[in-house]
Amino acid sequence: MDFFPQRPPVSPKIYAYELIGVASHRGYIKVGYTERDVDTRIREQTHTVAVPYRVLETWPAMRSDGSCFTDKDLHAVLRRKGFRQLNEGEDRNEWFRCTVNDVKAAVYAVRNRTENVENRTNDFFMRPEQKEAVDKTEAYFRSAAAEGYPKFLWNCKMRFGKTFAAYQAAVEVFKTRRIAKTYAAIVVGSFPYAHQKIDAPLDDQPAVSLVTREAAGPDASFLRVRIETGRTNQIRRHLSSIRFPILGDRTFGLKTARDPKLMAVPRQMLHAAELQLPDPMRGGKGQIKAHSPLPADFRQCLKAFGMGK
What we know:
By secondary structure, the chain is of the alpha+beta class. 26% of the residues lie in helices and 23% in strands. The protein has helices spanning 38-46, 71-80, 100-111, 128-143, 164-175, 234-241, 260-263, 296-304, and strands at residues 13-19, 28-34, 53-60, 95-97, 180-188, 195-199, 208-216, 220-227, 270-278, 287-291. The strands form 2 sheets. The chain has a 6-stranded antiparallel sheet, sandwiched between helices. The longest helix has 16 residues, at 128-143.
């Protein structure tokens, strides 16, 4: 199964060069496209007049998803930004009165399909932990494709941001620990309390979980759990410690059970349901709230134990 389009066999490039000692072209840069060697392509354009040239920079004309773009895409961006063409109005040449950084910013905009109003010339690549997360997820989906509908659970760590500035701001907010994270859980047994605070250290560090009962049946209960700390496997370990392990948890939960229905649940019934944090792009003023609906198999499990429609 192909999750990403395959890269084409060619090596397309965008190039920018200037002519040396030609007064009519002073300040203008030629922006072109080729699938061959750049110098070979430029010599084809300049050999008849034998004008010396200087290659300013080249860039791959390929996006990370394998698709390509051409110089025409860059020309459109440069025209939108108001850069004049040589002999403007007389012909449709590829010479623009701009700097190499202006071309670089246009490449960034076209490659990333953005307007790039900030005129950025630097690109950002995945950090090691981001790449590891993506590679691990892709590997799982490939290995589990035979299941028809593979699922993969990521824990609540900041890995990506829509922009680099947004990511950095969000990381700073997460450091303040003013984040409200609420999980939905189905546990084994009839939970007797409307509310319960579990204040029990984990790994020699403070750990606090606030539990609210949503529904309870004779064999299982539906809980909401808000965590005030973020220890490894905190919710699973806390609920197991009070003898209400999460349904389907083979590590901290049931290993065997008299009721086969309790052992038939294929995965742990724990779902990251809500996230609330101060708006990082507004200096903490205002709140961002994110809600993730219960998955279909989670709702089906509630129904199987008499707690859902």
